[in-house]
Recover the amino acids of this structure.
C-alpha cells in the first residue's frame, strides 16, 4: 500500500490558465476528500466523494472549480481561469470502506502546491 | 459553524515534554484527531481519540479530552528535534459529515 498519491507535486501556471490535479486514494478506500491549505492556515474542506458520488461541496468551491471521480477510484480537481488567490496547497485524503466510524478517519497525500503568477 | 482554535507557537528544549492545546465549539464529532505537518509536506495522522474516551496513550503521545470544556490536548514526552513541525487539531463538522475542520496549527520548535 503506497498511501494517497497526488500528481503533480508542484504546478506553476499563469493567471487565466486551467489546471488539473489528480489524486489516487489508498486502495479500496471508498471515500475521497479534497482540501485547500493556504500559507499559515489549516486545511479547508472543499468536497468529498463516496465512490463516484460527490456528497458534499463547500462554498469555497466556486464555479471555476470542478471535481470528479468517474469510476470511484482516482479523482481529478480542475480549476478554470486560475486567479492569484488560487495559489495554495491542494490536499487529497481518503478513508476506508467501513460501516463503523473508522470510515471517517482520513489519510492524506503529500499535496499539490499551486502557484499562480 | 464549527470553530477550532489552537495557540500558534510552542518552543521547548529537547528532552522536555510538549503540550499542545486545542479548543472546539461543536461536540458532535465522534473522533478527534491530531495531525503533523513537516515543511512542504502533506499531513501525517499522528493519533486520534474516540469521543467517549478521556485519555489515549500511544508511545510518547498522550491525548487528553475534556468534553465538558471542549478541550483537547496532545502531550509529547521526551520531545526530540525530529518532532519540530506544525501540529493540527481536527474535528468533524456538525452531524458527523465526512469533512474535517482544522485548527490553524501550532508550530512546535524543539531546541537542542
Amino acid at each position: 500500500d503506497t498511501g494517497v498519491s497526488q500528481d503533480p507535486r508542484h504546478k506553476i501556471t499563469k493567471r487565466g490558465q486551467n489546471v488539473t490535479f489528480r489524486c489516487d486514494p489508498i486502495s479500496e478506500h471508498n471515500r475521497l476528500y479534497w482540501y485547500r491549505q493556504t500559507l499559515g492556515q489549516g486545511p479547508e474542506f472543499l468536497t468529498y466523494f463516496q465512490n463516484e458520488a460527490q456528497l458534499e461541496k463547500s462554498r469555497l468551491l466556486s464555479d471555476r472549480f470542478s471535481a470528479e471521480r468517474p469510476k470511484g477510484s482516482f479523482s481529478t480537481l480542475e480549476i478554470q481561469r486560475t486567479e492569484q488567490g488560487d495559489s495554495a496547497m491542494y490536499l487529497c485524503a481518503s478513508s476506508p470502506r467501513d460501516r463503523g466510524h473508522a470510515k471517517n478517519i482520513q489519510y492524506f497525500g503529500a499535496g499539490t502546491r499551486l502557484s499562480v503568477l | 459553524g464549527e470553530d477550532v482554535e489552537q495557540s500558534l507557537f510552542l518552543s521547548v528544549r529537547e528532552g522536555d515534554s510538549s503540550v499542545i492545546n486545542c479548543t472546539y465549539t461543536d461536540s458532535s464529532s465522534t473522533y478527534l484527531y491530531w495531525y503533523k505537518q513537516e515543511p512542504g509536506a502533506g499531513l501525517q495522522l499522528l493519533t486520534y481519540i474516540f469521543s467517549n474516551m478521556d485519555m489515549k496513550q500511544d508511545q510518547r503521545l498522550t491525548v487528553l479530552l475534556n468534553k465538558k470544556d471542549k478541550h483537547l490536548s496532545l502531550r509529547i514526552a521526551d520531545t526530540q528535534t525530529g518532532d519540530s513541525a506544525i501540529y493540527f487539531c481536527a474535528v468533524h463538522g456538525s452531524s458527523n459529515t465526512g469533512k474535517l475542520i482544522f485548527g490553524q496549527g501550532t508550530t512546535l520548535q524543539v531546541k537542542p
Observations:
- Chain B has a mean pLDDT of 92.
